[in-house]
């Protein structure tokens, strides 16, 4: 603890707001048992949330529901879901004896890092969102991700809450009880093209938590046979699925103490996780941030854009090793991109042009692109919208002086 705090102080003195992962790197090297020891110390256990997409939003939703029920919850920022980030997040809150004053922990974990950490923690509950072709430079194929999630699921003692519409998840055979969630057959049939499930298993969901209707930011989710009206933090059926997973996990954790009205109120009050349909005011302009991380999320989020948007900036950064990964998505709904930016600006502009999207300008310098985009007059239709990948999201927030 002393070493970690010393390193954190040194990193911050060197660069204000920087070096957040450095303490975790150092502590994991000198005390490899630290992370597992702290994770095992919560009185009501550890909850791990993992999967290809939806981890950050699902984690935030679950934390909000548990907190509304009076639980003291320790959680990690969505950007701290790998080993060193998790350790640094624990160092921020732990006492000098390495303990955190909370009832339980709800932690988002990257699939690969979670699998490597699996032998070092024991989870009360594991929540798995989905398996998609994602981060192909790291994971190569969906079966590799499936194997990683199987290792994480094996650490659950009480239950594994999983997306029952994803055949790669339903094929897992965890030792703990399986609690499915998902969408009704009607919603699945009408879902946008990007939902990306390998197959469906609606018969698994007849008694589970499931989405029965989605209209923009409004959804109806059936829990214990009762359809709850839920306001989502952003538009789209994928956010409704995240909410269903959070509700299913909360019901499992809270048991008879679970109150549907309290849970709905917590979800209604929740703001988006930064970048996920978040609307901010910057330099006097309203801007919506739309984060896309794989082909499926690009398709889902583009399908939810208002038609005829007047001002859209698209930015793809260095986190995308191979931009052809995004080519299967139909991005025609964007219509017109005022500026395309980021280190992969040329490649994403080419994809947009092939989809019939008008591209006014290519500006690889993201800072300059943001300044010029925000300087444009107010849009004729909708609000200014920035569609970006994770690297460009971080650079955008830093350039604009936004937290997170």
Automatic annotation (TrEMBL):
Domain Mur ligase central: 49-249
Top-level taxonomy: Bacteria, Bacillati, Actinomycetota, Actinomycetes, Micrococcales
Residue ranges of coiled coil: none
SUPFAM superfamilies per UniProt: MurD-like peptide ligases, catalytic domain
Any one GO MF annotation of this record: ATP binding
This protein's name: DUF1727 domain-containing protein
Any Pfam family matching the protein: Mur_ligase_M
PANTHER family listed in its UniProt record: UDP-N-ACETYLMURAMOYL-TRIPEPTIDE--D-ALANYL-D-ALANINE LIGASE (PTHR43024:SF1)
Keyword annotations of the record: ATP-binding, Ligase, Nucleotide-binding
């Amino acid at each position: 603890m002393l070493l970690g705090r010393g390193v954190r102080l040194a990193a911050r003195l060197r660069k204000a707001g920087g070096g957040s992962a450095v303490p975790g790197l150092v502590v994991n090297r000198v005390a490899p048992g630290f992370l597992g020891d702290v994770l095992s110390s919560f009185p009501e256990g550890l909850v791990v949330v993992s999967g290809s997409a939806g981890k950050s939003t699902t984690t935030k939703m679950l934390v909000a529901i548990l907190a509304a029920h009076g639980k003291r919850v320790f959680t990690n920022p969505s950007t701290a879901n790998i080993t060193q980030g998790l350790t640094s997040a624990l160092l921020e809150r732990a006492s000098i004896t390495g303990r955190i004053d909370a009832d339980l922990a709800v932690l988002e974990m990257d699939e690969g890092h979670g699998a490597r950490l699996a032998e070092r923690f024991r989870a009360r509950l594991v929540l798995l969102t989905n398996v998609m072709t994602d981060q192909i430079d790291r994971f190569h194929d969906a079966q590799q991700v499936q194997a990683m999630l199987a290792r994480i699921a094996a650490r659950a003692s009480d239950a594994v809450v999983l997306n029952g519409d994803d055949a790669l998840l339903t094929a897992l055979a965890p030792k703990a009880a399986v609690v499915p969630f998902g969408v009704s057959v009607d919603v699945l049939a009408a879902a946008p093209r990007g939902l990306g499930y390998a197959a469906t298993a609606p018969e698994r969901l007849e008694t589970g938590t499931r989405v029965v209707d989605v209209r923009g930011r409004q959804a109806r989710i059936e829990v214990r046979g009762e359809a709850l009206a839920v306001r989502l933090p952003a538009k789209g059926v994928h956010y409704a699925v995240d909410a269903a997973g959070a509700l299913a996990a909360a019901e499992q954790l809270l048991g008879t103490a679970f109150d549907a009205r309290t849970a709905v109120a917590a979800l209604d009050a929740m703001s988006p996780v930064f970048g996920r349909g978040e609307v901010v005011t910057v330099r006097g302009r309203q801007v919506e941030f739309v984060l896309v991380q794989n082909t499926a999320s690009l398709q889902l989020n583009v399908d939810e854009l208002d038609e005829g948007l007047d001002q859209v900036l698209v930015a793809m950064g260095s986190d995308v090793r191979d931009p052809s990964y995004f080519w299967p998505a139909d991005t025609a709904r964007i219509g017109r991109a005022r500026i395309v930016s980021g280190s992969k600006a040329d490649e994403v502009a080419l994809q947009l042009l092939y989809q019939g999207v008008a591209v006014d300008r290519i500006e690889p310098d993201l800072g300059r692109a943001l300044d010029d985009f925000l300087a444009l007059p107010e849009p004729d239709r909708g609000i200014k919208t920035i569609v970006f990948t994770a690297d460009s999201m971080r650079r955008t927030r830093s350039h604009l002086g936004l937290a997170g």
